[in-house]
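Chain A, query sequence.
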Amino acid sequence: MRIEIILILFLEVTLVQSLSEVSGYVGENVTLPSGADPSWQLATIDWSVFPNNTWIATYRSGKENIERLHQYTGRLSLNISSGDLTIYNLTPEDAMEYTVDLLNSKAQDKVNKIKLTVRPSAEHLQRPTIQTVTSTSAEGGCWIGLHCSSTDQGVGFAWQINPPSVTVFRMSNPDGNSAALLAFLNTTHNPVQFTCTSSGQMESTSSVVTHNCDDDKPQPPEPKLLPQLRCRYVWVFFIGCFLGISLTAITFYIFKEQIRSAWQWLKDKLACTQ
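Chain A, predicted structure.
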C-alpha cells in the first residue's frame, strides 16, 4: 500500500515527456523552447544531450552554467524565466536531440525533448517576386492585377491586404508555384499594401508592394512659357543691349578729350622706342 501511494505521488508531480521539432540554418541562431508552463517559477533547469544526458546548460540555486561542454563554449544563452535555450552560430554537429528537465518552486517536474535539425544556409526560402500585370483606370477607381511567384518548389502562397477593406475579386494559384490577385481600388483609397507570403515546411518569407489609383496617371507636362512671357523676355534682352550701347557712347562722348590725349601720349611713347 505504501509503495502504491508513493507511485501515485510521483505521477502527480512528474509530467509526461513531449517531443517537438525545431529547424535552424548553419551559421545562424536558434532558440529551443523548454515548454515550461508560463505560470511556473523555475527553480532548476537542466539542458542535456546524448543518451547519457550530458549537461550543456544548467540553472540551480540561482546560478547558471552554460560552459559545461566544449562543443558549445561561448555559443549558448539560457533564459532563466522561460527555460528556453538559444544556440548561436549553428553547426551541422548541433543537429541532435536535446532534453530539458524543469523543476518549479512547488517541486513539480517536467521533461521535454526537442529534436534540432540543422540545414545548409542555401536551403533558405527565397523571397517571392511580385509583378504588376495590370493597372487600369475604371469608373470610380482602378483595377490592380498582381502575380506572385517563387523560385522554390513546393511552397504555398498567401495574400494579405492592408487595409483589408479593399475588394478582392479573384485569388488563384494556377500552376502550383505562383499566386494571382485581382483587386479593385477606389479613388479615395490611400496607398494599399499587398503582401505575398510563401511558406515551406519550416519557414516562410514575404514581399510587399504598394499601389493606389494614381500610379497609372500620366505625369503633368513640364510647364511652358506663355507667349506673353516669351515676348517680354525678348523685349528685356533688346532693351538691355540698347542701354549698354548707349551707355558706352555717352561715356565716350564725355571723356573724348581724355581718350584723345591718352591716345596721343601712347603714340609718342611708341615713336620714342623706335
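The two ends are 146 Å apart (CA to CA). Confidence is low (pLDDT under 50) at residues 1-16, 218-226.
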